[in-house]
Amino acid sequence: MSTHQPVTLASLSAAMDGGFIAIADVADAMAEVRATEDYRLIGGVAVLLHVQRLGLDLPLRATGDADFGVPPHLLQEAALVPAIEACGYENAMPKISGGASRSRPPTA
After folding, report:
1. In a domain, 3, yes or no
2. pTM value?
3. In-domain check, residue 1
4. How far apart are CA 63 and CA 12, in angstroms?
5. Is residue 87 situated within a structural domain?
6. Regarding predicted confidence, which is higher, 75 or 22?
7. Domain with 96 in it
8. What is the pLDDT of residue 78?
9. Contact present, 33 and 56 (Cβ < 8 Å)
10. Strand 67-69 relative to strand 40-42, pairing
11. Given a cut of 90, is residue 11 above it in pLDDT?
């Protein structure tokens, strides 16, 4: 069982704010379908978290999205996509190879 610690990250733009909000939204959706251990945050925000965790004196890496690694079996879970859509996201494209799909953030 992992321990969770709050992290405070600086944001460089409204796009970066949106990425942080998407992380919280997807975490909530995963909790709703009881899949909190079945996905990984990857990409730019993961790099930011590692830099902060290691206390490295590096410039902030700007990113405007939230990337997740999710196994195919979870993407086929009937409740997951509706849980993400309930946060205001919409499916941006039809299913692609492996059953994956991409979601577009809510518009203002």
Report:
1. no
2. 0.73
3. no
4. 9
5. yes
6. 22
7. 14-104
8. 81
9. no
10. antiparallel
11. no
Q: Which residues contact 44 (CB under 8 A, 6 or more apart)?
A: 19, 61, 62, 63, 65, 67
15-31 core/surface letters (b: 16 or more CB in 10 A; e: else): ebebbeebbebbeebbe
Read off the tokens for 83. 């849980």
User: pLDDT digits over 15-46, tens only?
Assistant: 899 999 999 999 999 999 998 888 899 998 89
Interacting residues of 85 by C-beta distance below 8 A, sequence separation 6+? 91, 103
Domain assignment present for 60: yes
Question: What pLDDT does residue 94 have?
Answer: 63
Looking at the DSSP assignment, which residues form a beta bridge with residue 103?
Answer: 91
Q: How many independent structural domains does the chain possess? A: 1
Q: How remote is the C-alpha of 12 from its chain's centroid?
A: 18
Instruction: Copy the structure tokens of residue 36.
Output: 């909190």
Distance CA 27, CA 98 (A): 22
* Among 32, 66, 36, 33, CA closest to 49: 66
